[in-house]
Design brief:
Structural class of chain A: mainly beta
Largest interface: A-B, 21 and 23 residues
Largest sheet of chain B: 6 strands, mixed
Oligomer: heterodimer
Structural class of chain B: mainly beta
Shape of chain B: globular
Helix content of chain B: under 10%
Number of helices of chain B: 0
Distance between the termini of chain A: 40 Å
Shape of chain A: globular
Number of strands of chain B: 10
Chain lengths: 120, 108
């Protein structure tokens, strides 16, 4: 069965960076695009970007351009999301989610989420 | 503009029918996806595309689109349907994802 297992909770300081991981299993890793989203406490879902695990190409939401980097390791079926220059507004649960098709924008499988807390 | 607008909260009596709506210009070009999220849990896809329901989702849940408005309809609402519901689609450019602000559904 498809599983997305995310790394554990992180605490970051303002100005620092955080790198989260999402390990996929149960399907062909390089076939389906992977999305990253976040959800601030008590707020809605926010789409951050997408990565093609096959070639590594990415597209980022304009809000995060220049501050986010998504990468992948095909040998371990893992995607990564690094966010730089953290502020308190980056405190959120971060999700990876797999597309239902190669790339459609429909997210059929979700990781359990990683809580990132930014605090001095 | 690339935005999806949802009512913040909707309520429905147990066993009745409720419609949750999502408005946005991108819906004229792209179908909506609908996700259900319960407290402390990751979202779950409940309806997508023109007429698609993932396995395990009851057929009491359905979706439709007219013009720039997508709707998620829940018939015979159950207590278990109480959750936040989010619509999503691609933005106008087709290159990025877009989410509505979410609708909190209360089952009375």
């Amino acid at each position: 069965q498809v599983q997305l297992v995310q790394s554990g909770a992180e605490v970051g300081t303002p100005g620092a960076s955080v790198k989260l991981s999402c390990k996929a299993s149960g399907y062909s890793f390089t076939t389906y695009y992977m999305h990253w989203l976040r959800q601030a406490p008590g707020q809605g879902l926010e789409w951050m970007g997408i990565i093609n695990p096959s070639g590594g190409s990415t597209k980022y939401a304009q809000k995060f351009q220049g501050r986010v980097t998504m990468t992948r390791n095909t040998s371990t079926s893992t995607v990564y999301m690094e966010l730089n220059s953290l502020t308190s507004d980056d405190t959120a649960v971060y999700y990876c989610a797999r597309d239902i098709l190669v790339v459609s924008g429909t997210l059929s499988y979700w990781g359990q989420g990683t809580l990132v807390t930014v605090s001095s | 503009s690339s935005e999806l607008t949802q009512d913040p909260a909707v309520s429905v009596a147990l066993g009745q029918t409720v419609r949750i709506t999502c408005q946005g210009n991108s819906l004229r070009n792209y179908f909506a996806n609908w996700y259900q999220q319960k407290p402390g849990q990751a979202p779950v896809l409940v309806f997508y595309g023109k007429n698609n329901r993932p396995s395990g989702i009851p057929d009491r849940i359905s979706g439709s689109t007219s013009g720039n408005t997508a709707s998620l309809t829940i018939t015979e609402a159950q207590a278990e349907d109480e959750a936040d519901y989010y619509c999503s689609s691609r933005d106008i450019s087709g290159n990025h994802g877009l989410f509505g602000g979410g609708t909190k559904l209360t089952v009375l």
